[in-house]
Amino acid sequence: xxxxxxxxxxxxxxxxxxxxxxxxxxxxxxxxxxxxxxxxxxxxxxxxxxxxxxxxxxxxxxxxxxxxxxxxxxxxxxxxxxxxxxxxxxxxxxxxxxxxxxxxxxxxxxxxxxxxxxxxxxxxxxxxxxxxxxxxxxxxxxxxxxxxxxxxxxxxxxxxxxxxxxxxxxxxxxxxxxxxxxxxxxxxxxxxxxxxxxxxxxxxxxxxxxxxxxxxxxxxxxxxxxxxxxxxxxxxxxxxxxxxxxxxxxxxxxxxxxxxxxxxxxxxxxxxxxxxxxxxxxxxxxxxxxxxxxxxxxxxxxxxxxxxxxxxxxxxxxxxxxxxxxxxxxx
Length: 331
Known about the structure:
By secondary structure, the protein is of the alpha/beta class. The chain folds into two domains: 5-71, CATH 3.100.10.20; 97-318, Up-down Bundle (Four Helix Bundle (Hemerythrin (Met), subunit A)). It is built from ten helices and twelve strands. It has helices spanning 27-32, 62-70, 97-108, 110-132, 144-153, 157-175, 189-210, 230-254, 274-289, 303-318; strands at 5-9, 13-18, 21-26, 42-44, 49-54, 58-59, 74-78, 84-88, 263-266, 269-272, 291-294, 299-302. It has a four-stranded mixed sheet with strand order 1-5-7-8, with helices on both faces. A four-stranded mixed sheet has the order 4-3-2-6. Helix 3 crosses helix 4 (110-132), helix 4 (110-132) runs parallel beside helix 6 and helix 7 (189-210) packs across helix 10. The longest helix has 25 residues, at 230-254. The chain starts with a strand and ends in a 13-residue tail after the last helix.
């Protein structure tokens, strides 16, 4: 049996339930379709879909929503510029009251919260240095052990984020050649790629969190604000350098992604067009499916599953079964 995959929708149209599967009908075919012509209908086997990413305008109804919920499928919506706006999130099916209490206790206790916040940042810092190790000889001011020690000695979360922020500024200059990280809106092509990629990763982590007993709204590095799954933001700190940044580097080096025909500009806003998004998603999907040997399990696992494993390790930490330490890649 094949593994479930993400479904990406770029055409506007109607997504509906047809018996025990999904049916997508593009808008032009809704207006002109022959009801007896089944060749125009796009049937999508529900058992092969993990989650759905929508980059267009679609019509759905309650029958479809109930069907998706019963199959545990999350739908992520993105705006015209390609950035995450919301998720259609089914009722959680793995609720665990004891785990939720432990999550909240780790947030309320300042020392426990600070420990986890440092872990997320340390995981990200390790992978940042992994990405730029070839350039370290040119950067006398950058030393991994020094920055790691600064994080360990930080007295509060503000200090932790400040250390990480200063490092990322240098990192983006070295790794991508940009002088400033701009977002909301991104002002150049590389910043546009980073913002789009981070939106994708955030959505992927939301899906992985849904399939665990973790509550995605209780976070430690980022404040758990209303209307966001802030634990996904915490976990993303570890994976952005090894998934999103490497995908972007690959696209720049091998696919000429920075050519004008992959972007559009709107006043001071630069964003990927549909063709550019599809190129990015192709590389992103390939990266998530890429496998590596995981020592603890003694088998090959995908990058996508590494995210799930990180969630499981957090669960063990909360239940006091195993002290959490962030993933640090060894390949």
